[in-house]
C-alpha cells in the first residue's frame, strides 16, 4: 500500500505547502486504495473519480501559486450517503430513494468544499441510518477492517472503514444514537459527535431532533480541524452555549491537569465485557497520570435510562413517520429490520411518546447538573465487540445504551481508540462533556491520544503493505 493513504491532514497540507506532495498524487493514491481494497470491505457506494481528479488538479495549481483556497485544499474527504453532495445522488442505502444527482450541497458539505476539500465519494450506511451495523438492501454488507467476518458498526460504518483503510483521512458522518462513535470504536479510528446545533443539518427533518453531523478521522487533530470547518451559523443559535465558527485546533494541545473527570465503567447498569472494561480502565488511569482528577462514579441520571426506552420510542416513531409516506411497492423494498422498526413506531401511543419527550427533558436537566460537578465523563463506547455479518443480533436491537443518551441531551462525545480486546479488535474510550464543551472534549481526547502513542493499523492495511514489497525484500 502507498503510505500516502495513511497520512494525516496536517501531514498532507505540509507536503502540499512544500510542494513535496501533489493533491493529484494523493487523490490517485486514494482512488488506487479504493480499487484495491474496497471490494473486500464494501465501504463506498459511489465515486466521482472524474470530478475528484479535476478538483485535485485545480488544488495542485493553487498550491503551486502559493494561494490555497482553505485549510483543506486538496484533501480527499468522503461523505456518508445520508448527506447531500452536489453532483452525486443521495441513496440512503435504499432502493426507495432517487438515483438522480443532487443539485446542491448540504451546508456542512458546502463548508468543506469552500475550504478546498475534494469530495470524492459516498460511504455506505444502513438503510436511512436505521441501525448500528452497516448493511442495506441497496449497498449490501460493509465489513470490519480488523476482521472481515464482523461488522464495523453503523450506521456510519462505511465512513469509519474508509478512514481506517486509507481511503481519505476524513469522512463526514452522522450520529443519531451512536452512529459515529460505535463504528469509530469498532474500526479503530476517532469519531466525534458535536454538540447539537454546532454543525448545520441542512433541510428541516424530524431526525434532527436526535441526529447530528460530525467527523470521523484517524487522529483527534484532524477531527478538530474538520468540525471547525463544518461548523457554521445556520443552526448554531438553536441551542444555547454552542460556539460555532472557530478553529478547534487552538488550545488542543493544552494540559488536562486539574480537570475533574468522572469515570463510569458500567453506565446505565450495563454489563461491559471484561476485555473492553480492562482497556477503558487503563485509559482512564492514563488520564489520571496526565494530571486529571479521575473519580469512579455512578451516573445517577442514567440509572433508569435503558428501562425508560426514551430513545427507542422516539427513534421508532421517527421511522414510522418516514415509512408512512411511502407507497406499498416502496415498503416491500425496505430492509425487514426497518419495516419492523417502523411498525413498532406505529404502535407507540401518544401518551408514551409524550412521556419519552418528558423523560428526555428531565435527563438533559439532570445531566446539566452532573456537569456542574464534573468537567468530563469517561465511559466505554460499547459494552461488547462487533457482531458477525450479516444482520444484527436480537440482543443488540435496542438503543445503544452507552451512546444514545448523549443524543437525548445534545452533548458532545468522542470515541478514541484505547486498546485491543483478547480477540485483537479495537476498543473505544468515550469522552463526554457538557453541551457546548466541544473544545474541552477534543482537548482531553487529544491528550489521551498523545499519551497512548501510535495506534496500530488494521490487518488489511498491514497485509497490503506486505504484499506490496518486492519478492525477496526482507526489510
From TrEMBL:
GO terms for molecular function: catalytic activity. Residues 26-442 form the Amidase domain. It holds the Pfam family Amidase. Gene3D superfamilies: Amidase signature (AS) domain. Belongs to the amidase family. This is Amidase. It comes from Caballeronia mineralivorans PML1(12).
Amino acid at each position: 500500500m502507498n503510505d500516502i493513504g495513511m497520512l494525516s491532514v496536517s501531514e498532507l497540507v505540509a507536503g502540499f505547502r512544500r510542494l513535496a506532495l501533489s493533491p493529484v498524487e494523493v487523490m490517485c493514491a486514494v482512488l488506487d486504495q479504493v480499487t484495491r481494497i474496497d471490494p473486500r470491505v464494501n465501504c463506498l457506494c459511489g465515486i466521482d473519480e472524474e470530478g475528484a481528479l479535476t478538483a485535485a488538479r485545480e488544488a495542485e495549481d493553487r498550491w503551486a501559486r502559493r494561494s490555497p483556497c482553505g485549510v483543506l485544499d486538496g484533501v480527499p474527504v468522503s461523505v456518508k450517503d445520508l448527506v447531500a453532495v452536489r453532483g452525486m445522488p443521495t441513496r440512503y442505502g435504499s432502493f426507495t430513494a432517487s438515483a438522480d444527482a443532487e443539485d446542491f450541497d448540504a451546508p456542512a458539505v458546502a463548508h468543506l468544499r469552500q475550504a478546498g476539500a475534494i469530495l470524492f465519494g459516498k460511504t455506505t450506511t444502513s438503510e436511512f441510518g436505521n441501525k448500528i451495523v452497516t448493511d442495506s438492501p441497496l449497498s449490501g454488507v460493509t465489513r470490519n477492517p480488523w476482521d472481515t467476518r464482523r461488522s464495523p458498526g453503523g450506521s456510519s460504518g462505511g465512513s469509519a472503514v474508509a478512514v481506517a483503510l486509507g481511503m481519505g483521512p476524513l469522512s463526514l458522518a452522522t450520529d443519531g444514537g451512536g452512529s459515529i462513535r460505535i463504528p469509530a470504536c469498532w474500526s479503530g479510528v476517532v469519531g466525534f459527535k458535536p454538540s447539537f446545533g454546532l454543525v448545520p443539518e441542512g433541510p428541516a427533518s424530524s431526525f434532527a431532533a436526535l441526529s447530528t453531523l460530525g467527523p470521523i478521522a484517524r487522529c483527534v487533530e484532524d477531527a478538530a480541524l474538520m468540525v471547525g470547518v463544518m461548523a457554521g451559523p445556520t443552526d448554531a443559535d438553536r441551542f444555547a452555549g454552542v460556539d460555532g465558527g472557530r478553529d478547534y485546533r487552538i488550545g488542543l494541545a493544552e494540559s488536562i491537569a486539574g480537570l475533574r473527570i468522572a469515570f463510569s465503567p458500567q453506565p446505565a447498569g450495563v454489563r461491559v465485557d471484561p476485555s473492553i472494561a480492562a482497556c477503558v480502565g487503563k485509559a482512564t488511569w492514563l488520564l489520571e497520570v496526565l494530571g486529571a482528577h479521575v473519580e469512579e462514579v455512578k451516573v445517577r441520571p442514567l440509572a433508569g435510562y435503558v428501562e425508560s426506552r426514551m430513545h427507542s420510542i422516539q427513534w421508532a416513531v421517527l421511522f414510522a413517520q418516514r415509512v408512512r409516506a411511502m407507497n406499498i411497492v416502496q415498503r416491500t423494498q425496505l430492509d425487514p429490520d426497518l419495516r419492523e422498526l417502523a411498525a413498532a413506531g406505529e404502535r407507540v401511543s401518544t401518551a408514551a411518546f409524550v412521556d419519552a419527550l418528558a423523560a428526555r427533558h428531565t435527563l438533559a436537566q439532570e445531566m446539566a447538573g452532573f456537569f456542574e460537578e464534573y468537567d468530563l465523563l469517561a465511559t466505554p463506547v460499547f459494552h461488547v465487540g462487533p457482531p458477525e455479518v450479516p444482520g444484527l443480533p436480537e440482543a443488540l436491537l435496542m438503543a445503544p445504551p452507552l451512546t444514545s443518551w448523549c443524543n437525548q441531551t445534545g452533548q458532545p462525545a468522542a470515541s478514541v481508540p484505547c486498546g485491543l480486546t483478547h480477540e485483537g479488535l479495537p476498543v473505544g474510550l468515550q469522552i463526554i462533556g457538557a453541551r457546548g464543551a466541544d473544545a474541552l472534549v477534543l482537548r482531553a481526547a487529544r491528550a489521551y491520544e498523545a499519551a497512548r502513542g501510535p495506534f496500530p493499523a488494521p490487518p488489511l492495511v498491514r497485509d497490503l503493505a506486505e504484499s506490496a514489497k518486492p519478492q525477496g525484500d526482507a526489510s
